[in-house]
Write a structure and sequence with these properties.
Blueprint (H helix, E strand, L loop, with lengths): L1 H17 L3 H27 L6 H28 L1 H13 L6 H30 L5 H24 L7
Length: 168
């Protein structure tokens, strides 16, 4: 029993330490987005768009909806957690230069930049999923495409959407 009590605090310390790494946070958010994506894809493919007779044609609409919902999920969590420190720094910078921007203007600007920065990853995921679905189950094809596209999404959003702006 004392051995068990010894490893639990160390495990929690390790988890807290790992949460400090931005890419790991991004990966955890991406994992939640993958769950959202897969759930919406399955529900759309099997139920929401069931009226579309051809499964291949249905996949186009289902995949577009799944990607859109997952992108909004990921943007929200990345903004609130992964890059939260940069948001605070950006707000302080805006106050220091007395920028006339409202909170909603900043939000919509970031959402727009996030969507633009993620377009390559989204296009890559979409195209790879459709291509891989020729030989794999569509859900497995989608997971593989998500993993490949995640690297480009992280780099684009880290360097542009939520980039650190140093005070002038």
């Amino acid at each position: 029993m004392s051995q068990r009590q010894g490893w639990q605090p160390r495990l929690f310390l390790l988890i807290e330490w790992l949460k400090g790494f931005r890419y790991i946070k991004f990966g955890l958010v991406g994992a939640s987005g993958t769950v959202v994506n897969m759930a919406v894809l399955y529900l759309a493919q099997e139920y929401f768009f069931a009226a579309i007779a051809a499964p291949r044609s249905r996949l186009y609409a289902s995949l577009a909806l799944a990607i859109a919902v997952a992108t909004i999920n990921n943007f929200t969590w990345n903004r609130l957690w992964t890059w939260a420190d940069r948001l605070r720094a950006a707000a302080a910078h805006a106050r220091s230069i007395q920028a006339p921007s409202t909170g909603m203007a900043v939000f919509w600007g970031q959402l727009g930049r996030y969507a633009l920065a993620s377009w390559f990853g989204i296009a890559l995921q979409y195209g790879l999923t459709l291509w891989l679905a020729h030989s794999l189950h569509y859900l497995l094809a989608n997971v593989i495409a998500i993993v490949i596209a995640s690297v480009s999404n992280f780099l684009a959003n880290d360097r542009w959407t939520f980039r650190h702006r140093s005070p002038k």
